[in-house]
Specification:
The structure is a homotrimer. With about 425 residues, chain A is of the alpha/beta class. Helices cover about 30% and strands about 25% of the residues of chain A.
């Protein structure tokens, strides 16, 4: 497990430095590295899709593509006090070009800082109104001497496209398990190099399940406009095929886990992830009112997909969020390993789940199958409590989640029991999902 | 708001001194003053109905009408120690005539006091068995010297009628909002000059809503026999038209608010008043087991109307209840103003309620409509939280109450949001009630 | 009540010493004594059924019958250190024959003790694998000197039968109330001479209800294999006729009461016994996960009968359980009397239950029927609160249990109210069960 954590961490570190935005070369480079990683493991690669600027996507329009070649502020001595090349966060996302000398006072109109964390550079964007801006630490801003400053951004907004990657791994059923993560945040670790890195390794895991029941759909998109774009092209298919979906974000730190519930907290994804978290780890259950990532689109009225959010510490709930402090020291191999463990448990549960029914009336005679102690004395019953309780509720109306919740036993243990009873011919699946 | 409180208080003070009972001139005089008040405001007047004594009303019979001309006890010195003319409470309601000298001991058989509040005159009646009686403070009774006393009541029980007033204000829909209050309690303020006074001013408010959706029905009746009589004449219409109803009683003091739930606490009136109280003020939720006023009849098996009770301090829960201490100092303009505010909020909610549905798939782009901050940075989302949460649940299955309860925002704020989104063409009402 | 407690205790004491097992003469002797007791009270007797060894009963097979003539361990001095004749618990149930001298070390391989209660003989069986064994106190075992010991058991496993008793007392309806208890535990008092003793006296009670509504079925069986056998012969009838069922075990001590809920805790038996316990006594509600007696079979998937368990202290929850300390001093006349009171209340509730509906609209006029105080003053309403609350919920959708739970009044009081209102012609039963 530690090994897998290290691998995911290491891959996250590769995509971490890239200057991503909702469109442009940063996204493409990230998707290229993911495909390199998948290919090296013998996995199929993501399909890369380009959606032209100007495409109408529901209430929105795919924006012009943003290209940035250079961006900095220099002082009178021509020293660059902030520079895109040093940290992409220094330039407000989607900044339009500027090339102008101003004095300190005017410069400050274009500087964004995070006052409550004075040594961090904040992450700021302005996608839908033309602006430019620079981000720096409040400390730096406050130490700037009076004088002239050169604001320089060599960027371009042009009719290009929005880029995303997707991969479908077919299973026996055309019902789909869906994973979504986003590739638009520049140069931050937990939010968001961690989601794409984890998703990449979940693809490898699913690919290793050669006899899988479900079809799995993974997408790597820019947040908000990307999920809206994806939905505008795929909504009908998704509504008719999606069995459960997970939005992965902030999955690399090693604090407690989080689920962001779906709109009414009653989808298969809610049931599944809640059960795994409840029986495995410490976690916080966030109401849909605390949503913040693409679960907002997947759960929107009329979209109504069964998608929950999965995180370690939730976005917005850790001080480093959306600042330069969200770096590779904030995430860890252990953090990734834990998230990977939870999500592979989720996958396993989907694969093994069913509404099992015991095939005999009354309790089966476990003794003759060596499943029960043959001497009956005080306490002899305890040892097989999970087994007999499983049987007591294996009436064809409960799936493994129901039984786990009812009898208080993790599904991983129930899967073993289910397999053992099936091997003895005592169990049937009353409902093949 | 204070102004309206003063007006209601002042009108309550006009009807306060009247010696009302379940039948007779007190009721008629009260209804006459209400019509005078309505007429002065350009409102339509109540229709006055007279139901003859002896009329069968479900399991009951309209009783004979009670007329009282005079009533007192005098001592040997011919001093009147209690007198109807001083306080109508001194004579037990529905007392039959008496004209008899007795000694102190026998007199006491006919005296009712309230032992636990020795300086108050209690309110006592005997509608359905022929009796006479006198009410006074325990202090007064205990200070009476031995001697002869003259019990004198000049009253009459005769084949007259039971009187009530009603007013229907038509709206676009024939679905009705119902208000009931009672006009049978003599010379007490909160219970019950306050209910008729508030109802009178709610008529003025509804009359001012010229474009109103609902039809409103107001009735002013004697308690119990009046509501039973009214139901016996109107039940079929009420069952097919009533959308929500409110019984108003004890609405003039300025303590916390109360709701008396309906029989199963699941009517539209329960939902509506509960939401307004929950989001506005401190209040107590009383189970239907604590019912005590005409909600008993409206909720009876087979009647099954969606009626809740609304009060400040509930009847029976304040020591002054049903005594001479329930006078105009127990109620206040602030108390009336608060009750008026709650009930006009209730009316507004009924008028604006609907199951709204957002007309676009995925989140609408609020930015292009200037409904969203254009710079995205930490915290920029918070400012429009109520708006986006409203949209998240505007899926055509939730009405404003559901959304208010779900997202924790008062309906008054939601009505503004609903109007703003409608103005942008983003909202439709999925269910015109 | 004390009288009945003494009678039940006394009868339990008669069957207490018998060396019962799941088959054999102990069961037959117990059933013979029960029939003697029933017959002496003019009750019909149990039918005795014999099911041949080898009969397939669902997943099980009726075992060979066990007969034991003699069993002991003797030391070199030919002193019997344990002896069946002294206490049947000394011989492991279903022991096969043995006649062998061994030294102390080997002897210990065949000795069962209860380490945590060193002065008690444990109750141990091995029904389904051929073994022999001896039970004694840990103290005794630890004091045995080295030397040779003679293990001697003269027993026999042969093609005989499994024995049980049943009695059906017909009522007006063919819907059945079911009582099950077991007669396979040797020489212990609470578990299990108490269940058969209580059941015997419940038969007498039901027999005394000459105008009874329900049919009552009582069975006296060996645990597990007996209920499985009984179900295999009667399942279709039981599924179509059983209205509520009760498994009686450990009902003679005078500690708090227990209910073991059915599989989903939503049967008529759950509702009925829960209500009686809740309103009468201190009790513990045990989830079906704490099941342990024949409710395991009655509630098994596909069997699905509405059966709960009733006990004082639950099996396994008292230290004396399944040891020689569970003797007649552990149970008491008071304990039996309490259990009898609860179960006869359960029977009474079944007999009187219905969904009653008040036959008038609005509140009935109680005054004219002398059911209501005629002077109305503060507090006069309280005295008849149960009556008016009953009426408020007598709408034809609630049975006595619903009303009791809703208004917080014991059903015994509601039965009186129901009878009084019925006598006044005010009530009808909307649903004849």
């Amino acid at each position: 497990m530690n090994e897998i954590g290290k691998e995911i961490y290491s891959f996250a570190d590769r995509i971490y430095p890239i200057g991503r935005s909702i469109t442009g070369e940063g996204v493409r480079e990230t998707l290229r590295l993911i495909n390199e990683e998948l290919s090296a493991s013998g996995c199929p690669e993501l399909t890369i899709n380009e959606v032209p600027s100007g495409t109408e996507v529901f209430d929105w329009t795919v924006p012009r593509e943003w290209k940035i070649r250079s961006g900095y502020i220099e002082n009178e001595a021509h020293e660059r006090i902030v520079d895109l090349a040093v940290n992409p966060l220094h330039i407000m996302g989607y900044s339009i070009p500027v090339d102008r000398w101003v004095d300190l006072e005017e410069l400050k109109d274009y500087i964004y800082v995070q006052e409550d964390m004075p040594d961090a550079i904040p992450y700021v964007t302005s996608y839908y109104r033309e602006r430019f801006g620079f981000c720096m630490s409040a400390d730096q801003r406050d130490s700037l001497p009076a004088g002239k400053y050169h604001m320089y951004i060599d960027s371009e907004l042009f009719e290009g496209s929005l880029t995303y990657g997707e991969l479908v791994l077919k299973g026996k059923s055309d019902k789909e398990i869906f994973f979504s993560t986003y590739v638009c945040h520049p140069h931050m670790a937990n939010n968001e190099s961690s989601g794409p890195a984890l998703s990449t390794f979940l693809i490898k895991y699913v690919n290793s399940l050669t006899d899988r029941k479900y079809t799995y759909r993974f997408i790597f998109i820019p947040e908000t406009i990307g999920s809206i774009t994806y939905l505008s092209k795929n909504l009908a298919h998704m509504k008719s095929h999606m069995f459960a979906g997970y939005n992965l974000s902030c999955v690399g730190d090693d604090n407690d886990y989080s689920i962001v519930e779906s709109r009414y907290a009653r989808t298969e994804a809610d049931r599944t992830l809640s059960n795994i978290l409840e029986k495995s780890v410490k976690y916080t259950r966030y109401d849909y009112l605390k949503r913040g990532s693409d679960e907002r689109q997947y759960n929107a009225p009329g979209v109504d997909l069964p998608v929950v959010g999965f995180s370690r510490t939730l976005f917005g709930e850790y001080p480093e969020y959306h600042t330069s402090k969200d770096d590779m020291s904030y995430v860890s191999p252990e953090g990734f390993a834990g998230s990977y463990d939870i999500m592979t448990q989720v996958i396993d549960l989907h694969e093994h789940n069913g509404r099992y029914r015991i095939k005999v009336l009354c309790e089966p005679q476990l003794g003759k199958r060596n499943l029960y102690p043959t001497v009956s004395k005080k306490g002899s019953y305890d040892a097989i409590e999970s087994l007999t309780n499983f049987i007591a509720y294996a009436d064809g109306t409960n799936d493994l989640i129901d039984i786990s919740n009812r009898i208080g036993v993790p599904v991983s243990e129930l899967i073993e029991i289910k397999d053992k009873l099936s091997a003895h011919g005592l169990l049937e699946n009353a409902y093949e999902q």
